[in-house]
Amino acid sequence: MINVTFPDGASRAFAPGMSGLDIAKSISPSLAKRSVAMVRDGALADLSDPVDADAKIEFIGRDDARALELIRHDAAHVLAEAVQSLWPDTQVTIGPVIENGFYYDFYRATPFTPEDFAAIEKRMREIIARDRPFVKSVMSRDEAKSHFERKGEAFKVELVDAIPGNQSIKFYSQGEWSDLCRGPHMTSTGKVGDAFKLMKVAGAYWRGDSSKPMLSRIYGTAFAKREELDAYLKQIEEAEKRDHRKLAREMDLFHFQEEGPGTIFWHPKGWTLFQTLIAYMRRRLAADYQEVSAPQVLDKHL
Prior knowledge:
Layout: E1 2-5, E2 11-14, E3 18-19, H1 20-27, H2 29-34, E4 35-40, E5 43-45, E6 50-51, E7 55-61, H3 68-86, E8 91-92, E9 97-98, E10 101-107, H4 117-130, E11 134-139, H5 141-151, H6 154-162, E12 169-174, E13 177-180, E14 196-205, E15 214-222, H7 226-241, H8 244-251, E16 254-255, E17 265-266, H9 268-285
Parallel strand pairs: 1-7
Antiparallel strand pairs: 1-2, 3-6, 4-5, 4-7, 8-10, 9-10, 10-15, 11-12, 12-13, 14-15, 16-17
Helix pairs in contact: 3-4, 5-6
């Protein structure tokens, strides 16, 4: 038997190999129903994972702050499935969770545009409504490479090659669609909910290398509750109103050009304002600081 300790300090014995879900069911059916993952010895883990040694376990629900990362991770997988179901010739690459959301990089002949978002979000809602369980499986390196080679997923083959030899090669399926992923995930696609939104699209080189193919990156965000998403979108809207680039255009202060990334092209009113601020700073700081000047064009390694 193994001993499982819970957040309240209580400890119970279980047969080794029982899943987190089965342990939750043995405590309370309602606990199992509302749990989407578990925290085992301080780390998020799949609720379906077997517990085969003594451990400290906490079951978390979808509204737990720690589940937000999982909501966004699962949303990235749903996004990838939606895209490939709409455009089957699209190759998938990586889709991590980032601050305030997630993204997924795709490779296709025609880059995505914001006009594609409505169709993608609609398909995502259909996938979420199906509520298919996330099922983890493990493949050998050769099996994983053959799987992706048959599907024409060249980027995934490269990712498999990059996985260290001492690590398992894990897949997560949601119905008929699956992806290479180290996890963890919530119990099913339905747990993503409807508080998500695709935000923008951008170009990104594969692995950040300009000599490699350009990918189409779709950014999105997701929250546990709709009101949290609405509050975030409102915050973004307010920040955009105060964006210095927007204000500069409206007030005719300065502009940027592709020929000089990061370089400000001052307009008369903006230059006057800038010089006024510089003169003020010089008056205030002259007694305490010495003024220096540094080059604006430096070696890219700096």
